[in-house]
Write a structure and sequence with these properties.
Amidase signature (AS) enzymes; 11-stranded mixed β-sheet
């Protein structure tokens, strides 16, 4: 049974089709692993009964020769996607007891393809964080540790629970969301593959909103092939989402090939600051070398407005968060203060003070400030102009190259107890935020380890709607790196 959980998602689905094991068997194997490693706190809500029901239904379909991209595959779902009849908390006190009466489009698509949901994975509260330390349901631990050290490492954020669950074999693959790097950065920290598709590729309907012009669903898996398959299952147009784009979903999985012959790969000079750690710089150079050896041409490019990306993001995202989180007022649903109040305004104040954590409050306040009278033009309007320039940088770059290669994060995972300022925490997204602002697809693929044995990822970016090239380039890096990505003890 232990061997079953070490199969990749694609291997799992093939094994189920070949009747080497049943969906119930592999589901039970994952549920056992989840029990053994509860200390990781990767899940907020486990759903073993539902998982076994779905597994039994998958086995019946398999016996009848029915098909589905994910038929019988055990998946973890970030607790930001509304799941009908299953608690959806956004890792917050505000939604601690919220049970949706509807299904998000992304999870509905996943279930339609036969997936088995093991539970709702932990995250930074309302997806706001880079370390998975802001959850109302306590921190998530990274299964990876520094060599010869006992300290607990963070898994990255905000999709840290999904990433940790995937890395520790607590699921065959998982769903996350990426606003400014919340899939790619935790993937880098946990030695998994994380992909943010083009903005508009996956429906946002039924997903608890953080920043509406940035949020995108995507997969966190153990291989590039798994990511292609899971993304294929959840992508597609949705009339219920005004930001969803009417485009056919390609057969990314079937067309996946580790081939970059004749491609031009851009290396942006702005992504190599003076303080870039040596192991990150060396890995980036190694990745470029692998692609060159595979037949690609490496081209230095410029993305001149990169230095403004992070401050732009931390104006745009909090502004949208401020608007989106205004709905949590204690009237319609979610937490309401139990304290005695003398007015409606006081009820609002107490409810929101109790229901939101410190980081969420911080971002709401920043967002409210930059949208307020007298500051809108100075901050938010200027940020939108710079965002347009960043998008134009990428558009110009993709006239010269087929893909862009960068580090995913400026460091490996850091210790849970290592004190970092808010600004230092925000800097974790320095390499992922620009692509989010531009809306282009990006993937983080494990490519090496730092000196302490912690995984490091490389990021591949491509033009909008060209996820196939993104996946193909990542597959070349994955093949060349050829890493054992099993954390010690798992």
């Amino acid at each position: 049974m232990t061997d079953l959980i070490k199969l990749s998602l694609t291997e799992t689905i093939k094994g189920l089709k070949d009747k080497k094991f049943s969906a119930v068997e592999i589901t039970d194997a994952y549920l056992t692993q989840m029990d053994v490693h509860k200390h990781l706190n990767a899940y907020i809500t486990e759903t073993p009964e539902l998982a076994r029901e779905l597994a039994k239904a998958a086995d019946k379909k398999l016996a009848n020769g029915e098909d589905g991209l994910l038929l019988g595959a055990p998946i973890a779902v970030k607790d930001l996607f509304c799941t009908q009849g299953v608690r959806t908390t956004a890792a917050s006190r505000m939604l601690e007891n919220f049970v949706p009466e509807y299904e998000s489009t992304v999870t509905a698509k996943m279930f339609a393809e036969g997936a088995v949901m093991l539970g709702k994975s932990n995250l930074d509260q309302f997806a706001m964080g880079s370390a998975n330390i802001t959850s109302h349901f306590n921190n998530v631990s990274n299964p990876w540790k520094r060599r010869h050290a006992d300290g607990i490492m963070v898994p990255g954020g905000s999709s840290g629970g999904s990433a940790a669950a995937t890395a520790a074999f607590l699921c065959a693959g998982s769903l996350g969301t990426d606003t400014g790097g919340s899939i790619r950065q935790p993937a880098s920290f946990t030695g998994t593959v994380g992909m943010k598709p083009t903005y508009g590729r996956c429906s946002r309907w039924g997903t608890v909103a953080f920043a509406s012009s940035l949020d995108q669903a995507g997969p966190i898996c153990r291989t590039v092939a798994d990511s292609a398959l899971l993304l294929q299952a959840i992508a597609g147009f949705d009339a219920k989402d005004s930001t969803s784009v009417k485009k056919d979903v390609p057969d990314w999985s079937g067309r996946l090939k580790a081939d970059v012959k004749g491609l031009k790969i851009g290396v942006p000079k702005e992504y190599r600051p003076d303080n870039l750690p040596d192991d990150i710089a060396a890995l980036w150079d190694q990745g470029a070398s692998w692609l060159r050896d595979a037949g690609a041409e490496i081209v230095e490019i410029t993305l001149p407005h990169t230095e403004y990306a992070l401050p732009t993001y931390y104006i745009v995202a909090p502004a949208e968060a401020s608007s989106n989180l205004a709905r949590y007022d204690g009237v319609r649903y979610g937490h309401r203060t139990g304290e005695k109040v003398s007015s409606l305004d006081e009820m609002y104040e107490r409810t929101r003070a109790e229901g939101f954590g410190d980081e969420v409050k911080r971002r709401i306040m920043i967002g409210t400030y930059v949208l307020s009278h007298g500051y809108y033009d100075a901050y938010y309007k200027q940020a939108q102009k710079i965002r347009a320039l960043i998008a134009q940088d990428f558009a110009s770059a993709f006239e010269q190259v087929d893909a862009i290669l960068t580090p995913t994060a400026p460091s490996a995972a850091f210790g849970m107890n290592e004190q970092m300022s808010n600004v230092e925490m925000y800097l974790n997204d320095v390499f992922t935020v620009p692509a989010s602002l531009a809306g282009v697809p990006g993937i983080s693929v494990p490519a090496g380890f730092d000196g302490a044995g912690l995984p490091l990822g490389l990021q591949v970016l491509t033009k909008a709607w060209d996820e196939q090239t993104c996946l193909n380039v990542a597959a070349v890096i994955e093949q060349a790196a050829n890493l054992d990505l099993t954390p010690e003890g798992y």
